């Protein structure tokens, strides 16, 4: 089940795939974090950002959730401006418990 509130109309295939994969991760908490971020930002991401977001999608839910919540240290190769935006979006704009 997808929680997306954004239509995929007008998005290219790559962005539609990213949107789908963001909402279908496996751990519901990560569906909400990644999916809401993708809903809000997918249309404004640069090609570099899209590549970085695809890389983040490949990270296991446990690791990514740990990095976002601060329970685990974020490896330097993932501590990018896009990851910072994702983390800020979750912690300041749209927490999963709202």
Please provide a written account of the structure.
With 98 residues, the protein is mainly alpha-helical. It has a single domain (13-93), classed as DNA polymerase, domain 1. It contains 5 helices and no strands. The chain has helices spanning 13-23, 28-41, 47-57, 61-69, 81-93. The chain is globular. This is FAD assembly factor SdhE. Belongs to the SdhE FAD assembly factor family. It comes from Microvirga aerilata.
Blueprint of the fold:
Layout: H1 13-23, H2 28-41, H3 47-57, H4 61-69, H5 81-93
Helix pairs in contact: 1-2, 1-3
Helix content: 55-70%
Radius of gyration: 12 Å
Main sheet specs: none
Structural class: mainly alpha
For CATH, the homologous superfamily is named as Flavinator of succinate dehydrogenase
The geometry reads as: globular
**Beta content:** under 5%
Element order: H for helix, E for strand: HHHHH
CATH architecture: Orthogonal Bundle
Q: What's the multimeric state?
A: single chain
Give the number of domains.
Answer: 1
- Any low-confidence stretches, pLDDT <50, length ≥5? 94-98
Q: What is the class in the CATH system? A: Mainly Alpha
Overall residue-averaged pLDDT value: 87
DSSP summary, beta strand count: 0
Distance between the termini: 19 Å
Count of separate DSSP helical elements: 5
Quick synopsis:
The chain has 98 residues and is mostly helical. The chain has one domain (13-93): Flavinator of succinate dehydrogenase (DNA polymerase, domain 1), CATH 1.10.150.
């Amino acid at each position: 089940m997808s929680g997306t509130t954004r239509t995929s109309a007008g998005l290219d295939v790559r962005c539609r795939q990213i949107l789908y994969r963001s909402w279908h991760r496996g751990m519901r908490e990560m569906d909400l974090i990644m999916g809401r971020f993708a809903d809000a930002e997918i249309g404004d991401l640069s090609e570099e950002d899209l590549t970085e977001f695809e890389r983040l999608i490949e990270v296991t839910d446990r690791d990514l959730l740990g990095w976002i919540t601060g329970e685990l240290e974020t490896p330097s190769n993932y501590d990018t401006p896009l990851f910072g935006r994702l983390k800020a979006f979750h912690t300041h704009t749209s927490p999963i418990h709202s």
